[in-house]
Design goal:
Blueprint: H1 2-5, E1 12-13, H2 18-23, E2 33-38, H3 44-54, E3 55-56, H4 58-64, E4 69-70, H5 81-84, E5 101-107, H6 110-119, E6 124-126, H7 141-150, H8 155-158, H9 167-174, E7 188-191, E8 196-199, H10 202-214, E9 221-224, H11 225-230, H12 232-242, E10 246-247, H13 271-280, H14 291-300, H15 303-308
C-alpha cells in the first residue's frame, strides 16, 4: 500500500484555498456548500455518501434545516468546469451560486481508472473491443481488423462475438469515434450535457479533465479515490472543515456497500472488496494493454499530477 500511495497519509490538493472560501462569506457561513465532482469511475458517489453521512453546515441547518452538502456541483459532477462552472444553461434550477460552492473533486490512479473505463464507459466513446484490446491507447492489429467490420452495419447482426445482449459493448465496435486506419492513437470523445469534447486518447482525457480543476483559480479540493478507501475519516473530516462544516457524529460513519446505484453501474464493488484487492495487489493495472500502450502512457500522463498524488507507473 505504501508503495502505491506513499506512507504520509492522504494527498489532498487545494487545502490552501479553504480559508479564502470561508472568508468570502464574511462570517455568515449559512450560504456555504460542499459539492462533489470527478471524472467517470473516480469514486464520486462514495465521496458524496461519506460527506452526507458525516458532515453538515451547522449554520445552514439552524437557518433552514439544510445540510449544505450537495451530491454534485452545480454544473454537473462529471462536466469539466472551465467552460461550464458559471454557465446558466447547465446549472440546476435550485442550485446555489457557483462561488458559494466548494468542489471536492475525486481523482483516481490513471491505470486503475483505465481498467474501470473498459468496464463502464458512461458517456465516453472510443473504438475498442473489450475482450481483445482495452485499455487501448495505440492501435494495433485488433483495431485494424475490426474497423472494416465496424463499418459494415450487417456485421453486428450476424456475429455472436459482438455482445448482443449488451448494447454498450456493441457500440464500442460499431461507433468508430473518428478512428481510421491512419490514426496514430485511439481518439476519444465524451458527450456531456451541452457539448462533446474530443481527446487524443484516454490518457489525454485523464490529463485534460483533471487539469481544469488542478489549474483552477477558484477554491477546490482534489482528493484521491484510494484515500476514500484507506483514509475515509481523515479525508471526510478535512473536506468538512475546509468549507466551515461540522461533523455530525462522535463515531465516523463508514459506507460499507458500494456507493453506486442503478443498472448503469455494473460490477459494483463493496468497500471491503476494494480494500482487499488494493492491499493484496491482485488488481492487474495493465490488463489488456500492450507494451506500446504502456510506453505511451508513461510519456503522456501528466507528470506533475502523477507526482503530487504519488501515482506510480507499472514496473
Amino acid at each position: 500500500i505504501t508503495k502505491r500511495l506513499g506512507s504520509d497519509g492522504p494527498r489532498i490538493y487545494g487545502l490552501e484555498t479553504c480559508e479564502d472560501f470561508r472568508n468570502s462569506f464574511d462570517g455568515d457561513l449559512k450560504g456555504a456548500f460542499l459539492a462533489v465532482a470527478g471524472a467517470f469511475n473516480s469514486g464520486t458517489n462514495l465521496m458524496a455518501e461519506l460527506l452526507i453521512a458525516n458532515c453538515y453546515n451547522k449554520k445552514r441547518y439552524e437557518y433552514n434545516k439544510g445540510l449544505g452538502i450537495r451530491w454534485q456541483v452545480n454544473w454537473g459532477k462529471h462536466t469539466p468546469p472551465l467552460k461550464w462552472r458559471d454557465n446558466k444553461e447547465v446549472v440546476y434550477p435550485d442550485a446555489p451560486p457557483s462561488e458559494n460552492t466548494m468542489p471536492v473533486v475525486t481523482i483516481r490512479d490513471p491505470y486503475t481508472w483505465l481498467q474501470s473505463m473498459c468496464v463502464n464507459r458512461y458517456a465516453t466513446h472510443w473504438f475498442h473491443e473489450v475482450n481483445y484490446h482495452c485499455p487501448n491507447l495505440i492501435p494495433n492489429h485488433v483495431e485494424h481488423e475490426f474497423l472494416p467490420k465496424a463499418l459494415d452495419e450487417s456485421y453486428k447482426y450476424t456475429r455472436e462475438d459482438l455482445h448482443h445482449k449488451n448494447p454498450w459493448l456493441v457500440d464500442n465496435i460499431m461507433n468508430t469515434a473518428n478512428f481510421t486506419l491512419h490514426s496514430k492513437t485511439v481518439p476519444v470523445y465524451v458527450k456531456y450535457k451541452k457539448e462533446t469534447i474530443n481527446h487524443e486518447s484516454l490518457a489525454h482525457m485523464w490529463n485534460e479533465w483533471y487539469r481544469q480543476y488542478y489549474d483552477a483559480k477558484f477554491p477546490k479540493l482534489i482528493v484521491r479515490y484510494e484515500d476514500l478507501v484507506f483514509y475515509a475519516e481523515e479525508v471526510t473530516t478535512t473536506a468538512c472543515d475546509c468549507f466551515g462544516g461540522t461533523m455530525k457524529h462522535k463515531e465516523f460513519q463508514y459506507i460499507g456497500n458500494s456507493a453506486k446505484k442503478g443498472d448503469i453501474h455494473m460490477n459494483k464493488t463493496s468497500l471491503i472488496d476494494n480494500m482487499l484487492k488494493f492491499a493484496s495487489g491482485t488488481v492487474n493495472v495493465t490488463k489488456g494493454m500492450t507494451e506500446e500502450d504502456l510506453d505511451f502512457a508513461k510519456v503522456v500522463l501528466d507528470k506533475e499530477m502523477m507526482d503530487f498524488f504519488n501515482y506510480q507507473h507499472p514496473e
